[in-house]
Every structure is written in structure tokens, then in C-alpha cells.
Amino acid sequence: MRVAVFDEQRIGIVREDGIHDVSDVLPGWTPNSPWLVNAFIERFDELRPVIEQRADGPALALDRVRLCPPVPRPMNLLAAPLNYRAHRAEMTGHLTSGNDTADGLGFFLKAVGSISGPADPVLLPDRPDRRFDFEGEVAIVIGRRAVAVSAKTALDHVFGYTILFDMTMRMTETDREERSMRKSFATFSPMGPWTVTRDEIPRPETLALRVWQNGELRQDARLKDLIVDVPELIARASAVLPLEPGDVYTTGSPAGVGQITVGDVIEAECPAIGRMRIDVAARPW
Ligand code: MN
Question: How many whole angstroms from 164 Cα to the centroid of ligand 1?
């Protein structure tokens, strides 16, 4: 199932005929309560028969709604650094030290407040002295609490998969801010267009991701090339802290990252998930 969030943080199932509002399947759901999406995800298996029944009803046209981030307020937004060898190689010279990869570095955090939706532009701060990059990534959405799980059972804790742009301000020789800050500007984690539940993607290593900048193909990746694969990412992170329903873990960028400027359009497509098109604009504040 394709699970989307739209308009007043409503929860919808996307099908061929449009989007089906299933918000009120969740007991106590109220509009404009983005954190309730986590509760919906936590109870998804239990509510699924009713959700499916409701999704058989009338649909809204997708172009008549505004899609929000599919998980607007996860408790944790984790990210894998340097998780493809070809991207690791292209980052040499960008002040990345040694042979660090996700295998040795583990995860970093992005501020949850940096999340934006598939209908929102990325807003670049007015910093002409700095370089801003896109990193197209597939992200895991956690469905069941994971505490010190093994890689063998890790996928049982997945709700589904979505697409995330890990937007980044690069370091310079003299400006060496924390990675978490450079990647946490408002709108620097556009996510969407929806989450595809894991029953449709039993083997995440089969996923492919392509990214275009202004219509030109920039990234073309397969998750089988991840240095630390999806089950292992979950297992290792869950040994550090409990992963909660709705938590998002973005799996790392393939090679082909590049600088963006105001007016650019970045698009990402994962055939098993969908396509997301994001405008790059100047931050108005
Ligand atoms: Mn990244």
C-alpha cells in the first residue's frame, strides 16, 4: 500500500484512482496533528482490514490535494553517512577524513524540524559563500519498536520505504560546522511522495533510485551496493537506542551528488515507490 499524508495532516491510501482518506480509522484522530501519523503506523497491522475496506471507497484526485511529508514528525531522523563506495570516492577532497564509511561511522542525526514535503520547495539560505548539495536517498520508515534487534529479524520492524533528499551545506577549509547543523536547515529533508509498505518491497536490496537535476540524470543507484545494508543499519542503530514507529532512517547517498542553486529542479524516482519533484528557491526569511 502507498500511505500518504495530505492537506490537514490527513492520512490517505494512494491507488490508481487517487487518494482515499482513511484518517478516521485511527481512533482519536484529529486534523493538523502530524504526530498522530506515528500512532497510525504503529497500529497499521491491526487497523489494516478497516483501512483496506475504507480505501475501497471514493477517491480524491491526487492533483486536488497537497501532499505532506509521509512521516511529518518522526521521533528520530537518522542518516547513514558515506554508504556507497562510489560516493565515498567522490567525497575525497571534501574534508572527509581517512577511509571512513557508514561501516565505521554508524549514523548521524538530522533535525526532525528540517523535514518538508513533496509539494514544498527546498529553501536555500542566502549564503553565496557556501556550496549546497543534493543527496538523493531511499529512506526506511520503522513500523514496530526495535530494541537491539538482529539483522536477521530487522526487516520485521520496517513499516515501509520512501524517498528523501538529504540536503547539505558543505564544509570549507575554514568553516567546519557540525554535520547535523549543515544538514538541518529548514526544508533540508524533503521526503515523499509517500511510504510504500514493506509487503510490496520484501527485499529492499532490489530497490533502485535515480535522481535528475534540471532534467539531467545525476544519480543512478541500486541498494544492493550499500556498504551497510538495510537490515544491518536497523540492527546497529537499534543497539544504540530504541527505534520507534515512524522513525525514519535514510540509507545514504549514491555517487553523483552535486551543487544546487536557486531555480534548480531536483527529481528522484524509485520505481517501487514513486517519483518526487522538488523546486529549489531562495529562503524568504
Ligand atoms: Mn546523505
Answer: 9
- Phi/psi at 192 (5° precision): 160, -165
Rounded CA-CA distance 45/50 in Å is: 10
10 Å CB burial of residue 25 (0-12, 13-18, 19+) is: buried
For ligand 1, the distance from its centroid to the CA atom of residue 80, given in whole angstroms, is: 6
Residues near ligand 1 ion, CB 5 Å cutoff: 135, 166, 253
Tell me, in angstroms, the distance from the centre of ligand 1 to residue 149's CA. 24
Centre of ligand 1 from the C-alpha of residue 5, in Å: 24
Å from CA of 19 to ligand 1 middle? 30
C-alpha cell, 9: 495532516
**Strands 265-270, 115-116: pairing kind:** unpaired
Task: Please state whether 272 falls in left (phi above 0), alpha (psi between -120 and 50) or beta.
Answer: alpha
Please state, in angstroms and rounded to a whole number, the distance separating the CA atoms of residues 14 and 61. 10
> Tens of pLDDT along 39-70?
999 999 999 999 999 999 999 999 999 999 99
What totals of helices (H) and strands (E) does the chain contain, helices first?
7, 19
Instruction: Quote the ligand 1 centre to 137 CA distance (angstroms).
Output: 7
Q: Is pTM, for the whole model, over 0.90?
A: yes
Q: What is the pLDDT of residues 235-283, one digit of tens each?
A: 999 999 999 999 999 999 999 999 999 999 999 999 999 999 999 999 9
65 and 12 Cβ atoms separated by less than 8 Å: yes
